[in-house]
Each structure stands twice: as structure tokens, then as C-alpha cells.
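lol ok so funny story. i was supposed to be doing the assay writeup but got distracted and ended up predicting the structure for this chain instead. priorities right. anyway since i did it might as well share w the group, maybe its usefull for someone
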Amino acid sequence: MPTPGAAQGNDRLASCQSPLVSDAIRLSITGLVRSNRVPDRATPSSNDCATARSASALGGPAPHWTSWTYKPGGLRDTQTEHSATDTTTVYGYPAVNATGAGQPHTLTSVTVGGTTSKSYTYDEQGNTTKRYGPTGIAQSLVWDIEGELTRLTEGTKATDYLYDANGELLIRRGPVSTVLYLNGQEIHYDTAAKTFTAQRYYPAGDATAIRTETSLTWMVDNHHGTASMTVDATTQAVTHRYTKPFGETRGATPSAWPDDKGFLGKPHRRRHRTHPHRRSRVRPGHRTLPLRRPRPRSRGP
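and the output, tada:
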């Protein structure tokens, strides 16, 4: 059985990653590495881990080479994206003060390629109140007394969230659409076109069938709920998508995907990333998670 981050489709990973993200046991670096740390991951065109790493000798449909270093306590210290010009990200944490306090495990800054550091902030309950979206724009997050995210603002655009009595995400109102999440189905409202669309989910063994007004698609997840492949039921066209060990997109983004679920099967918006979980203190290597189940499942036709 594949494990998180394992090869998808015909992707070449050549076992060049740690046991955390592959069913292989070969590490791409030497020395002792704790099992909960990914030190290096690459897709060499030689398909041989013994080959010396080179940014010009990567293969597969989504080639990449990324390496990480960690602090003694396990926090990610740096990340390096290898290419013709390497890009290194440095993660910052508060130092322990004289009384032993200071939140030393809380991510407070990220510096990419030596540019200006970007800061992260939290409220007294530990909820993230400031972070950055995929485009580098700052996002502000507002939480209610129960620790549920109620509003996320990025620039001039805001998304609001409403929950049911069990704390499950019920309605998401965004800049361009509103989504109603029901058991096994979703209803989408396009605020510009003023039109409704819907989609239903049907469990089908190890796959999930997604039906809309115009199509039927089979979706295959890996074992932690991230969909990596779809098959059009009419044309039999196969679409793959790939992720890095910590959930970021790897390779080209498919031009079309049947739903809005991303890493771990959670709702993923084009501008706002994955919907954060309550009490979501950001730590490198840990994506914030939503309250929804990985993907709505229908109890019947």
C-alpha cells in the first residue's frame, strides 16, 4: 500500500525519499534521521537513488528535488527547492526566555530566498490570526468563541463560514461563489452568473464517483484522502495531479478537476488555500486542516 507522498501514476520517485513518504526504506541522505522527518525527496531521471543529485537530471511528469533540515526538537529549520538557482526558505521561532517560556515551538516568521521576512500571529487561544496565501498576500483570520473560523480576508476579498450544530462546515460564502455542504452532496451558487450547480458523491470500493449535471467522474484517493487521479466515465481520459510531502502542489496544475478538494481531501479554494482547522497554530510541515470529512460520502443513490 502506498504511503503519504508516494509515487502517483507513472511518476518517478525512485525511492529517493524517507520512509515517511514512501513504501521504500532507502534514504537519499546519509546519517541518522528520525522517522517523522523527511530529509530529501527527488525524482532523478536515472531512476536510481545512488545517482548524485542534479537539478538538471530530474525526471517524471512532475520532476522536483527538495531537501529539508530540522532543529533538534523536530521543527523544520530550512527548506531548499533545488533548481538552476536554489531557493531556500528559513523558518523562525521565538527563543526560549529566561523563565523557560516564549513559545519556542510556534512558527512566527518565514523568509524565502533571503527576502523580507513574513510574520505569523496568533490569538490567546492559539488560533492563527495572520498568515500568507499562495500568492504571498497576507491573510487575516477571525475565530468565534468555539474556535471555529468565521472569516478569512485576503486583500479586499473575504470568505465567511457557517457551521452546523456539530461544528461541521455547512456554508462557505466566498468572493465568487457560495457552497452548501450536505451529506454526500454539495450545492454551488455562482454569484456573478447567478446560477446553481450541484454535485453528488457515491462510494465505489476504493474509488469515489462524482456526478454533476453534465458528467460522471471516477476519483481515486491515496490512503490519506488526497485525490491523485480521475477518470472520465465517458471518454476514459485519465488526469493525474501530484503533491509534495507536506501537501504543496507539485508539477503542473490540471486544467480541470471535478471538485474543490485538495490535500487530505479538504475543501481547497483557488485564493485562500485549505480551510483551516480550529486552534490552527501553523507549524512548518503541518498543513492546517478543515473540519469537514475528507470527502462527502452518499448513503444511497
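Residues 1-10, 18-35, 270-301 have pLDDT under 50 and may be disordered. Residues 122-301 form one domain.
back to the writeup now i swear
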